[in-house]
Amino acid sequence: MKKLSTLFAFALLLLIGQMAFAQQSDFSKTSQLLDSLEKHKKFMGTVLLAESGQIKFAKAIGYADTENDIKNVIETRYRIGSISKMFTSVLIFQGIEDKKLSLETPLSEFFPTIPNADQITIDQLLKHRSGIHSFTGNEDYLSYHTESKSRDEMLQLIEDGGSDFEPDSKAEYSNSNYVLLSYILEDIHGKSFAEILEKEIIKPLELKNTGVFDAIDSQQKEARSYTYNGDWVVEKETNPTIPMGAGAIQSTAEDLMLFAEGLFGGKLISEQSLAQMMEIQEGYGRGMFSFPYYDKKSFGHTGGIDGFRSMLGYFPEEKVAIVTLSNGLNWNNNDLLLAVLNGNFGKEVEIPSFQTYEVSTEALDQYLGEYVSEQIPISFTFVKEGSTLIAKPSGQPDTKLEATAEHQFEFTSVGAVFIFDPSTGKMTFKQGGGTFEYERK
């Protein structure tokens, strides 16, 4: 839910290649990696992997509340961000099965003043093909995200945001879609989104630690969230009236595993409805994505809200569920996911050294300035604060970088690497398998 740039967006689980490997699980190195992440202040949270509903590995590290020395435990509840969209999609399909609406139902039946409402369907909202602008992409979003908003206020924000493209002409992620789906659910049920969630999903699956969040209470095993700025710094709390079914749910790793088991086990919706959720068009399903792991394929969703980052994936063929929930991330979450999966499927788990490279404030001067690329439209301006290099991507928040080698800096939580050549004034930016050449203006 928190505004993230395209390039710096929360990394998904992406691997290429077809490789056979042993099936004997060994989580010893996975556990060692987590211990190292905790020691070097790279990750706080809970990870879990289960097969056929039986937990094979689970571990919690770091603090739910650093100020009060409350440690994360397996039962700690985290805000799960956009994993909430999977729950909302399930509720919509339940409504379809109950003949309360259909995939073809136009948005205009509920909210006719939304731009292009007569052309937008429930299906397009589910698959992010509506063209409705995402309110979380606005510059002023972080100025009000902690405030309570009424339905009318949120609808006005969405209406004022207008349309970014013609409905069904392409797919583009928009939190506005799932806020609208939340309100549609409330209208067809005559209940609040929280009450619908409780009745239709939480009670049938006996999820004891899942629901729409309220103000965080760390004394009740609810984690606060943090960003890393030399140490863990507590984040502000998004008000649940804003994200609704797009991101207002909190849960535990075990509850999310049980949700995935219930969903793919036919306890919530029909096999036909599940197949429709899993249909991928231009990278988007209906409330879920597909994440490949070598020759295997999982379905699920990632989430990001305030300082929380999360991922839920389910491998239908193997009946394996994987969950990562973090309330503090200073590393590439993709590497953690791979470490857990590699431990399960018998592949090598690597433990990095986390060695840092010392650089003086004077040495940073050779990297300062604005860099542009002919390959992508985003420019970077580099400034310094003491002995820390700061990257200022165009139109995006400032990012503190970590020196990892001579002339090399990283933003590890999203796998971004900056390699400078001071003699030529050039810089190479790498992320997500892409390499982009930059030159100082």
> What is the chains' assembly state?
single chain
List the strand order in the largest sheet: 17-16-15-14-22-21-20-19-18
Shape designation: globular
Number of individual domains: 2
- Give the distance, in angstroms, between the N- and C-terminal Cα atoms: 34 Å
Structural class: alpha+beta
Write down how many β-strands occur, each being a DSSP E stretch of 2 or more residues: 22
Name of the CATH first level of the largest domain: Alpha Beta
CATH H-level name of the largest domain... which superfamily? DD-peptidase/beta-lactamase superfamily
How helical, in percent, are the residues? 10-25%
CATH architecture of the largest domain: 3-Layer(aba) Sandwich
- Share of β-strand residues: 25-35%
Poorly predicted runs are 2-22
CATH topology of the largest domain: Beta-lactamase
Number of helices: 9
Q: Report the major sheet.
A: 9 strands, antiparallel
What is the typical, i.e. mean, pLDDT?
92
Protein name: CubicO group peptidase, beta-lactamase class C family
Signal peptide: 1-22
Subcellular location: Membrane
Keywords: Membrane, Signal
In short:
With 441 residues, this protein is α+β, with helices and mostly antiparallel strands. It contains 9 helices and 22 strands. It is found in: Membrane.
